[in-house]
Amino acid sequence: MAASSLCLIGCVALWILAGTALAEDLVVAKLDRRVDLTSQVARTLVSFKIENSGSDPATKFLFALSKDQFDHLAFISAASVSVKGKSRTQSAPLTVKEVEKKEDPSSDAVYFEISLEKSLEQGQAATIDVQYALTHTLTPFPREIRQSETQLVLYHDSAYVLSPYLVKFQTTFFKLPGSRVESYTKVEPTKLGDKEIKYGPYENVSPLSQAPVTLQFENNRPFAVVETLEQEIEISHWGNVYVTENYHLKHTGARLKGGFSRLDYQAKGNGVSAFRYLAAILPPRAHSIYYRDEIGNISTSHVRNEPKRTIVEFEPRYPLFGGWQVKFTLGYSVPLQDFVFLAPDGSRYLNFTFGSPLVDVVVEKITTKVVLPEGSRDPSVEAPLALDEQHQEVKHSYLDTVGRKVVVLTKKNVVAEHNVPFQVKYKFNPLAMLAEPLMLIFGFFCFFLACMAYLHFDFPISKSSAAYQARLQQEEVLDLLQRFQKLMKRRLFEAEKLEAALRDLARTGDVAPCKASKKLVDPTLSKEVKAIHEALQATSRSSSVNSKVEALITKEKEKHERLLQKLNLTVDLYERKMSSKEIDSRLVPHEQKYTHLKSEVAELMDSLDD
Amino acid sequence: MEDRSAADAAVMERGKKIGSTGVGGGALVSGSGKRAFGTVLAALILCLIGIMAFSIRLFSVIKYESVIHEFDPYFNYRVTKYLTKAGIYEFWNWFDDRTWYPLGRVIGGTVYPGLTITAGTMWWILNAFNIPLSVETVCVFTAPIFSSFAAWATYLLTSEVKGRGAGLTAAALLAMVPSYISRSVAGSYDNEAVAIFALIFTFYLYVKTLNTGSLFYATLNALAYFYMVCSWGGYTFIINLIPMHVLLCIVTGRYSSRLYIAYAPLVILGTLLAALVPVVGFNAVMTSEHFASFLVFVIIHVAALAHYIKRVLSPKQYSTAVSFVITFGMAGAAALIAILAAMVAASPTKGWSGRSLSLLDPTYASKYIPIIASVSEHQPPTWPSYFMDINVLAFLVPAGIIACFLPLSDSSSFVVLYLVTSVYFSGVMVRLMLVLAPAACVLSGIALSEAFAVLTRSIKYQDLSESAAVDSTATLNSTNENEASVKEVKDKAPKRGKKKTVEKEVEKKRKRLLGLPMEASAVGILLLIIMGSFYVVHCVWAAAEAYSAPSIVLTSQTPDGGLHVFDDFREAYAWLNHNTGEDDKVASWWDYGYQTTAMANRTVIVDNNTWNNTHIATVGTAMSSPERQAWEIFQSLDVKYVFVIFGGLVGYPSDDINKFLWMVRIGGGVFPHIREPDYLRDGHYRIDSQATPTMLNCLMYKLSYYRFAEADGKGYDRVRRTEIGKKYFKLNYFEEVFTTQHWMVRIYKLKPPRNLVSAVKSKKRTQKKKTTR
Lengths: 610, 773
What we know:
The complex is a heterodimer of chains A (about 600) and B (about 775). With about 600 residues, chain A is an alpha+beta fold. Chain A is built from 10 helices and 32 strands. In chain A, the strands form 7 sheets. In chain A, strands 5-4-8-2-1-12-15-14 form an 8-stranded mixed beta sheet. An 8-stranded mixed beta sheet of chain A has the order 22-21-25-18-17-28-31-30. Chain A is rod-shaped. The model of chain A is unreliable at about 1-10 and about 10-25 (pLDDT under 50). Chain B has about 775 residues and is mainly alpha-helical. Chain B is about 65% helix and about 5% strand. Chain B has 36 helices and 13 strands. In chain B, strands 6-5-7-13-12 form a 5-stranded mixed beta sheet, sandwiched between helices. Chain B is globular, with a radius of gyration of 32 Å. The model of chain B is unreliable at about 1-30, about 465-500 and about 770-773 (pLDDT under 50). Chains A and B meet through helix 3, strand 22, strand 25, helix 6 and helix 9 of A and helix 1, helix 24, helix 26, helix 28 and strand 12 of B.
């Protein structure tokens, strides 16, 4: 009933159209339609063989879709086909343009104007392929199923291809995912094959006539729909392009009724319409791939590197049943030189594939943000597809000062056919890369400078404060101590020389050099020591320091005297020409005392160092 | 090093320390070149210690992932997220309606905000510099960063007590002490992460004030104490330990103005500041935990007065005054104490909070508060856990105590007191091992440094006495039995007659230097190094293997050497988050409350805060009741989903069935119809065919084992190592909606009431039939 009324409307529309729009008398000689219903997307390939039966040369061809289908249309393209014998090759893509036909508001057809490769003279024929993809046309029915049930879907279409031209001969094949077909409308001749339903051939179908058909069949392919995809492509001229993709994925098939039993799912394999595995095809040499969600890494993923592509196979945290959702993030990096190129005019451009790398998904809304490096100018986009929206933003990232320019592209209803390269052109000065490192260097430089300044300046609030005085005093004490230590070292040096002279004496028995060495002793030293000691006593209130210094001075003095004494005694003894044994025995007490003193002095010096 | 620190202590003791550069008195007396070199070297070592403290805690990130760990950290993370999103004022006023449904929880007023505000500030600073790190990343790395700070604070504290060498050793020890690592690995975003730093730093400032008598440090000390109060409930340890030390000083006659400056401002300023923290508020003056500080505050004033009077009066007058004051003072004090005791006794818990009471009386919790006793970290530790957590430090600590008595100063007595008290507390609660760890590190640092100093010095001065021996040409000979040193070998010309005196001299000097024979020193150093390496190896092992598991992800080795990941918890939380209604209420045992709110973003009935025992008891009762009663309880709480943790399939031992007796106990504590003996067969907890019918019919059993027997055909529980008692049963009031891959989390939905009408009716009908028959 409905079919016939539609037919009627179609016929009315035809008459209106025939009078106005169809000046050219094109006729579709042969039409072959193949509808692929094996996935969640209905992909149709219509092959027209058109003939110009009128007198004027035709340059355009009109392709029609019903309003219902147009609402689900994701993608359409056309190509002219050259037929040589049995081989068909699609030679050139043709432009497809949506045109409005205001003349017939009653019609539910939407027209696309396809400009032909070359105008069609009278009697000439041409072959055109039109491809289009519809999303969300396969509706699950029943809408809710149990875990153990399989998923059935409905598909509505027409047995006749909607065309504003007379179609002399047409056939339609519906390719199905499985052999189970629950029901289908019969428009004779109709033939149900294995995984295929054939409608036609029909002959001489009048323009715009329709014969609605409804197919109900089993389709357990994943109905994975990405509700929103936010993709961020960040270019770093240090050598990487970072891609981050945030997915909100939903299973839009028949909703799960009742509970989910893990037992039935694992042991009995129930839940055929649910899906567990997803795959993404990334560019070759993609690295640093991560797969996570807001609560952490998801460990179920594998990466396979192939020469032409990188395949990531991953599972969501849980199997997705009808109506279930999941959110996750997929991120990866690709080498800069594979995607960013220098244009002849000196500007740079990014060449990247649009759409989602996920296999077999429909993206309802994609937002692609291309983050250009800081300091780039004049971005412009070249995309071979119709974008819904395009604007620019500014993003602040690592240590940015002015921010990075972001080109935002938005498109709804994206399928695999949209995965074509697009370009973002921008101007960039490589020196801008150095801005951030230089900033860091300068920052640290300033920090160290400030530290140095702090250590070298005085910042007391009052010059008379106790702490300040104490610090001054401490510095003075340290200074004095240093001078003191220097003096002591000189003294020790002298002592060593004297000792050396003594040893020489013991060896050679020659008294003269030993006598001479006595003159080496600097008498002023002790005076200096005394002066420093007094100064120390005046400044330092630290008794431990003073006592140490005092002890050292006295011990040193004693030692020095002892040494001189010993020297004199030795010289004396030698001059008296005593036997060496006797000399030795005479010297022993001196020697002992001296050694003892020497070690004590050394110890004191050490303790002073601390 | 030792001479210096001894000199240091001496200088400090006499209160004549020059300047306040913090380098220590000993450094004053050295050449400035050497001093600068030492400072730079120390700074470099500290820097390396900081890096080590940070990096040893990254095993969890490398082995697992950068994720928040366990339970409480998830709550802190959620609060931090809120703070960064809504701002500080919103945070103070935050009423959280997604937890403790239907009561809710005032987060701003019941949480120690230190950690959250610290991480929030770090995040804010980073973002101000346009470094877009996520809040999660900042939270994950807060603990490692603060453990570096804690190591530096330990350096400061120890070098204030015993010099720079001990400081560096102690810092290195603390940087890798396993006890502290267990609480501060990357991802362990808990209060203790910053609190230990605050604790050590407060102690450092106290000791610094005590050594310098500077009011500047006293003020800083109060601020550090404030930060500690903000961070952790363990601040009561500080406010009891410091008064104890002050009291000790007064009693042992070490009262000085420095002590007064170190203590009095801390009490006044610290109490005022502490009262500013909402979660503490008036508790800062009203609870018994703070009582000691005020009492000692009074005592120190009395002592100060006594000192003043002693100075003013002549000795004779003074003694009469003392006897006068003592007689009247005793009477007054007795009256005061009586009043106080009466007031304290009037309150039921004697003015102490439950946790503090269980510290003072270790048996208190198990007697009265099962909810405190049920937490594993509130159990007393075992001996192996001491070895596990502080390792060789346990043996070094006594040596450190001895070193602290040579000589005893105000600061070293403080460290000893800190150690003694924390040893007691760690013995009560395994969690407080964390407080012991810094004390053990400080004392072990002192011990190690002293030991090294003695040994290296004996080697160093060996040369000296040796050269003395050579020069004198009349030194010790081979007959000297006492001496077993190199000297003998080099002995050239023995002169028997004279050697005795020399020997004595050298001996005397030896004694003063605490010298040891060369070989003994070398062996000692070698042993110390071996011990140190053992400690390092143990710490790295503990960090890598024992303490880095985030506990929300479990892994096991597969036979072929791979790693099998059990990520069931997050699977369940992700499922709840994405596939249930935004406002649905989810019931589970309280352990999982924080994770559910943070990861699944769903409203929970009870969580790890455990502030309302009755509410937890209600959930416990529901879990221990038969299906229908449980359904009614949950229905009355507006619960839509219930989940249980079940480890029976894969052998995960800390599941709900193993925790079940606590649910019974806590539930029974409030609702007397739940009785623990009903769930035990002859005092044994079992779930096999010998289990009691009450056990086999309770909700927890049913939700855990629903259709479990069908999985392997026998129903063999791999945790309890037994076949379950009741294998095939139906659920009438609950419906399984999700079970994770390894069955570790099982989520059930309450069946809606209208579907139940028929079930109830049919049940009634059958009952009627039965009765009519």
